[in-house]
Amino acid sequence: MSETTAKVRKSLARRYRQEKRFQAYGILSIGVGLLALLILFTDIIGKGHSAFFEHYIQLEISLDPDVLGVDDASDDEQLNYANFGGVIKEALRERFPGVDDRQQQRQLYALVSSGASYNLRDELKADPSLLGGTRELWLLADDDVDLYLKTPERKRPDARLDDQQKQWIEDLEAAGETDKRFNASFFSHGDSREPELAGIGSAIVGSFFTMIVTLCLSFPIGVAAAIYLEEFAPRNKFTDFIEVNINNLAAVPSIIFGLLGLAIFINLFGLPRSVPLLGGLVLTLMTLPTIIITSRAAIKTVPPSVREGALALGASKMQVVLHHVLPLALPGMLTGSIIGMAQALGETAPLLLIGMVAFIVDIPGGPTDPATVLPVQIYLWADSPEQSFVAMTSAAIMVLLAFLITMNTLAVVLRKRLERRW
Amino acid sequence: MDTARELDNRNRADDDAAKPLIDVEERSMQDTPYPEKTVGKPFVDAPKMKLRHVNVFYADNQAIHDVSLDIGKNEVISLIGPSGCGKSTFLRSLNRMNDTIDICRVKGELHLDDQDLYDPKLDVVELRARVGMVFQKPNPFPKSIYDNVAYGPRLHGLADKKYDLDEIVENSLRKAGLWTEVKDRLHSPGTGLSGGQQQRLCIARTIAVSPEVVLMDEPCSALDPIATAKIEELIDELSESYTIAIVTHSMQQAARVSHRTAYFHLGRLIEVNDTETVFTKPEHELTEAYITGRFG
Amino acid sequence: MQTGNLLLLLVAMVAAAYYIGWQKSLAQARPLGGIRHLESLPFYYAMRAALWCAIPALVVLGAWLIFDDAIIRSTVMMSLPEEMRPASEGGRNLLLSQIQNVASGALASDSVRPEIAGAADRLRGLRGTNTMALTVVFIIVAMLGGAWGWLKIAPQLRARQQVEKILRVLFMLCALVAIMTTVGIVMSVLFESIRFFGQVSPVDFLFGTQWSPQTALRADQVASEGAFGAIPLFMGTLLISAIALLVAVPVGLMSAIYLAEYAHAKVRAVAKPLLEILAGVPTVVYGFFAALTVAPFIRDLGESIGLDVASESALAAGLVMGVMIIPFVSSISDDVITAVPQVMRDGSLGLGATKSETIRKVVFPAALPGIMGGILLAASRAIGETMIVVMAAGLAANLTVNPLEAVTTVTVQIVTLLTGDQEFDSAKTLAAFALGLMLFITTLVLNVIALHIVKKYREQYE
What we know:
The complex is a heterotrimer.
Chain A: H1 3-48, E1 53-62, H2 65-68, H3 76-81, H4 84-95, H5 102-109, H6 116-126, E2 134-140, H7 143-150, H8 163-174, E3 178-182, H9 185-188, H10 201-232, H11 237-249, H12 254-268, H13 276-300, H14 304-312, H15 317-346, H16 349-353, H17 374-382, H18 388-418
Antiparallel strand pairs in A: 1-2, 1-3
Helix pairs in contact in A: 1-18, 10-13, 10-15, 10-17, 12-13, 13-15, 14-15, 15-18, 17-18
Chain B: H1 2-18, H2 24-28, E1 39-40, E2 47-58, E3 61-72, E4 76-80, H3 87-92, E5 104-112, E6 115-116, H4 124-130, E7 131-134, H5 145-156, H6 162-175, H7 179-182, H8 195-207, E8 213-217, H9 225-238, E9 243-247, H10 251-257, E10 260-265, E11 268-274, H11 275-280, H12 285-291
Parallel strand pairs in B: 1-11, 4-9, 4-10, 7-8, 8-9
Antiparallel strand pairs in B: 2-3, 2-5, 5-6, 10-11
Helix pairs in contact in B: 5-6, 5-8, 6-8, 8-9
Chain C: H1 3-32, H2 42-79, H3 89-103, H4 114-151, H5 159-199, H6 202-207, H7 231-262, H8 265-280, H9 283-304, H10 314-339, H11 342-350, H12 355-384, H13 387-392, H14 410-419, H15 427-460
Helix pairs in contact in C: 1-2, 1-4, 2-4, 2-5, 3-4, 5-15, 7-10, 7-12, 8-10, 9-10, 10-12, 11-12, 12-15, 14-15
């Protein structure tokens, strides 16, 4: 055994320990990343799943025409001004007799959501014959009650209710007069100060309109720009400048685009604030670089032989591009655009600056109606003090993530399906 | 004889399907049969490396077919043959560089002195310190000249003191014939040298570890003739202290530097003989066809 | 007519122009013996007519919409008696919105001064006339364009060349949008910043250590010295970004190395996309996670070992931001590591180096420029990140490097200054743009350097 071999052998144990340590760092790093992902998702789902359900309270309600102030239940005008709150309060007093103190009565009334009157109105509208009768009806519970019922029994003392209210709720629960139902209004309602009435309906519609505007602008412009840069632009300093420009724009912080929207679109051009049209314009400018870059990459994969073949048959450059290059590059362009749209859908910061933080109750009817978008709704709710909004926010995040995952999966599937190998 | 030829032809058919690399000229040689076993003198007394029945596979493609060869102590043996004949693959299996390719499997008995190269208990790190390798393209590390040469000794802890390390570096660079050219700029980057200097740097880097065998995989293919001449000179000098196996594309080079020459054809070792014999009166038809330039 | 309806009408007119263009070119081809005697295919004649119909009309519409509002507003303003016209822009805007509210019926006309009610009437009238005039002009331009395109159709007309030229110009205009965006960004932040620096000295802004924009709101107080000193914001941004990079760089880099050099193909195929999900999660989600989960956790943890941790600590925001940029670092590192040629690894392995020695001493130094570029990009990302810090970092400007305290950042202040009640021209609003300018310049410099390094690196191994 030579001297070298002896020395090498001596160093081996230490070096293999190093090797092991190095690999362990690698595994640890991946573990940290994956763990963060896992914690994030379990945290969100853990907090948010309960918001997809809400509690109802059963009360025996007598729809007394005198209390309601309604003599004809088929008259919508009368129903709109009817005192449904009065009959609900009456029903509550009857359910829990002996509550005479005004303070206590107010506590009692707080068990039922202020939105329950609308439940009642809709019931009566659907069946006018109920007027004057007495019926057992399920009414939407207040968010504090809802939260209390959702909390497992041993943790309950934390709730924002006083002991008397807790007693009432437990009585109702024991009597089987509470019920947990799917929270459909979460998907259909607009924002509200009352968590049990708030929903992401208007935000989803707002996001939809914003995305439509973004897609309609960014896809054609991005593809046209990519075609120009890749096929027609002369190779000179100016083209290089455009290219550097696009690469830089792709890395400009998104909030800067919000400043652009505020200064140029709102202050200079006088576009209305808070509308999906404006949001779409800002997001278009933000996603354009992504779409241009991926579209150019897609065009680059079309082999020169295709172009040469068409040119040799006497096609013009434009015909080659429109008849051959574009159709072949389209799948790649679509994939890039979907990824760009997914980015835009999750974007919040620039929209805050152009006024899409407004409190929007009504569902917008078009791209020029004031609206908010899903991520901004999440931001607004995350700031709200009511405990129930934590679950609502998480649930909204789950919906947003579901959309994003769908879009990204679609992009992956599209790429697998349509990608051509040369 | 007939059965042997049949077997060979069948093997060849498999080979064709598996290796699309074969070019047209090689197809024209299909009529010439492979020898039943390597002709000439593949074996020597007291070999440094003893290689028997070596087979190498890339996934399901066999790249080396049953090669048996000895490499003698302090000899220079050159491996020649048409491109895609597997000579580089064979060379890389001698210090287990093929381990870096996932799909590559090596079978057979390969020994360095008495050490089985593919013994699962053997440490590749130790093996590669004993069997060094110089690659086709000069691949100095993006470090200074000094650090390039000192890299191996530092890894293996061959020098305890800075002084020892300086000495190893200087000696290695001297042996590689590079010392006078670079002694004033030891700390400038190795990538700044010319191609020929880079390759000599890589040789210096290899011998700094004092290996017993140096494998060279077409070390001059990326170099100009003057640089090539310098490397060839160097190989000659190195053969005094090292055993060298060199893969080359240039028959002149093989003729100039090596003591023995092995001719590979489509993964088979056709003939091994003294260099002079191979180039003056080759025993096998395929060898003759190759060295007379009928294909290449 | 509403703009949307006008566009629908235009679509119909363009289709009509296309159709009659097509018909006319066919009719002209017939006596000549078929369409091959035409200079171009009928499609191009039809397309030319359609483009002539659409483009001039759209240009007119665009120009009209940009200018009409401003013209109407100034006309209404001018119609007010001299003494009612406010001098400041803020006052003008207030008055205008009052007039607009009266005009739209949101404000009863008898609740305001008669001059304003009159102005509201005038506004309503002008708007009606404006819409009418636009509709008429738009339709006329579109018809004239279409007719021109149709009239010119003749067998010798080089319609294809013309159509292709127009398309080419359109494509080029689309490519110019990227430049226009940059110009728009620069203009929007620059002009407002210049106005800001007219009120607050740049030296005070850049080197002042007091940030309290609220003080400038009081009318009796000029923006006092030091109120707009941005140093605490810069420090806060740096602190949070540094924490983020401290998390993301080692984790991202080691994951990339492990996945590129060690991991089995199957592990890589699963772990890589999973890690990349982290990059696809919207920042508002990270913000929520940081504010409601990580920050309280760190605070409680700190309390349990006797440390006083702010509930909006820089540490929480930085940690979560770090998790967000892990995939950036790892995917760029992965690119540059796999770009290091195999011969380099072979050279090291051939000398008897272990895999980790090869990676640490050969691959990593070779990939370092590319990795540095990636880290700079990640830094630019961290500095410009908004939602995480808006939701999880503080609002008060603290000049500290203690990660357990609350700090505020440039982006947080931009959002805070611009989402409250805005006053035009106040230093408070303009300060947001000055901060935007700083942010833009910083990230631009980082991006240019990073992209340059990465590009040079790629060329080196190509």
